[in-house]
Amino acid sequence: MQKYIVKYGFLIMTWSCLMVLGCQSDRTEKESPVKAPVTQNEVKTPLTKPNIEKKKLPVFEKEMSKIARTIPREIEQGIFKNPSAYIGKLVDHLGGKAKGNLEKVKIFHDWIADNIAYDAHSYFKNRIPDQSYESVLKTRKSVCQGNANLLKKMCDLAGIESEIVTGYSRGYGYQIFEKEDIQQSNHAWNAVKSDDGEWHLVDVTWDAGYLKGNKFVKEYSTNYLFLPPEKMIYTHIPDERKWRMLPANFDAKKLDNLPKLKGHFFGYGLELLSDVEKLNKVKKGFYFEVKTPKDVYLNAYVYDEKGKQLDNTAFIQKEEGVSKIYLNFPKVGNLTCRLFARYPEEKQYVETAELGFVNSEKNTDGFPLPYQAFEELEAVLYAPLVAPLSKEVEYIFSIKIPDVQKAAVVIDKKWNDMEKEGDVFSFETRLDKAKKVKVMAARNSKDENYMGLLEWEVE
Q1: Domain residues for 170?
Q2: What's the pLDDT at 13?
């Protein structure tokens, strides 16, 4: 008789483009959440990660600046008809009460994102019109070069030193399994100097919205406003080394194999703790960790080469601020994992990262189905971490559930109380004629309103 036991404290690891003027937009349509054992990661040379001294930045609100939307009527009417006559007045109004260069740039950034649409029609026609700041204001449309020109003009008039940065970006049309030419410029953004003489990076284009099909969808963010260079480098690789602002010992040859971590990844306060590359050679599955704030939930999807979502291939659980992400790959070949995040008040997950895997052996195991309470309670499943379960096999169910007083294993319709030791609940049983197993929990001992946490099919 087989017995599957994983006790508390045991780490489960038994499985085994266009040119610059035609720039790109990074943003993708928001995704809705879906249902979300471990394999030993293939040993490989750790990726050299950008690691520079972190500079403290002023804390700005993530919302649109009110000043950017309260423009005097004269300026509001004139700026789009006669830009050269009104650009100075607009800059004076926007930056008049700002405290320091970076606050002024934040307001300029917000105004551009709110008033200038991405010129998707010209981008897809590959016929980019004049991108001078005057043309951008008159048409209220631009691609990245026009946004960069306009922000630089506003900074010049405000007495803020700034530069236009060109380089390669992992924007619209990026394909993870296609070879990248990071020497091929396809994007433009800005560098601005703060009052203390430090340079900071800004991408207004990517903060203004995203492309959905061949249409531009306006959606404001601050994900690429002053994003530190060691984070910006995952999607923006400047032509000139000075704008990379990375340590001298950083291996530039590995730039094209950095994973694609989007601005949203850092915007949600996430931090990659494992050595993960753009493309990873694996066998059956993969495991990695992401530092995750308490008020952020993660989800993951795995897709095959044709873009089909593969069900029951990802499982995520968070413990002490670290999300542990388990992936099983049911197919051989090129597979993509996309990581999503959301705040509790958000109804949809937002894509934050894209990782590629070249899998050499398929894995027939899946994962138990987690319910929302599993995520919200930050429960941690120790065993069994595989699905489906097998009949005529004895299992020990072991799960850590903070802030609850009782839990039960429900086999079909039969309830079995779990033994509690601290925050860890356990129950040993043999599955004979069972078809379905659930783990349920209640916050207090007298509460009969149980929450569903996990579900397994039995075969």
Answers
A1: 67-249
A2: 30
133 with 227, same domain?
yes
pLDDT, position 189: 98
Residue 391 has pLDDT above 50, yes or no: yes
Residue 233 lies in a domain: yes
Q: What is the pLDDT of residues 213-239, one digit of tens each?
A: 899 999 999 999 999 999 999 999 999
pTM for the model stands at 0.84
Higher pLDDT, 15 or 384: 384
CATH number of the domain at 346, please: 2.60.40.10
Could you report the per-residue pLDDT of 368-380, keeping only the tens digit for each? 999 999 999 999 9
Pair (129, 72) in one structural domain: yes
CATH number at 156 reads 3.10.620
285 in a structural domain: yes
Three-state SS for the chain is: CCEECCCCCCCCCCECCCCHHHCCCCCCCCECCCCCCCECCCCCCCCCCCCCCCCCCCCCCCCCCCHHHCCCHHHHHHCCCCHHHHHHHHHHHHHCCCCCHHHHHHHHHHHHHHHCEECHHHHHHCCCCCCCHHHHHHHCEECHHHHHHHHHHHHHHCCCCEEEEEEEECCCCCCCCCCCCCCCCCEEEEEEECCCCCEEEECHHHHHEEEECCEEEECCCCCCECCCHHHHCCCEEECCHHHCCCCCCCCHHHHHHCCEECHHHHHCCCEECCCCCCEEEEECEEEEEEECCCCCEEEEEEECCCCCECCCCEEEEEECCEEEEEEECCCCEEEEEEEEEECCCCCCEEEEEEEEEEECCCCCCECCEECHHHHHCCCEEEECCCECECCCEEEEEEEECCCCCEEEEEECCEEEECEEECCEEEEEEEECCCCEEEEEEECCCCCCCCEEEEEEEEC
- Clarify whether residues 207 and 293 are in a common domain: no
Average pLDDT of span 397-414: 96
Tell me: do 236 and 167 sit in the same domain. yes
pLDDT tens digits, one per residue of 272-292: 999 999 999 999 999 999 999
Q: What is the pLDDT of residue 415?
A: 96
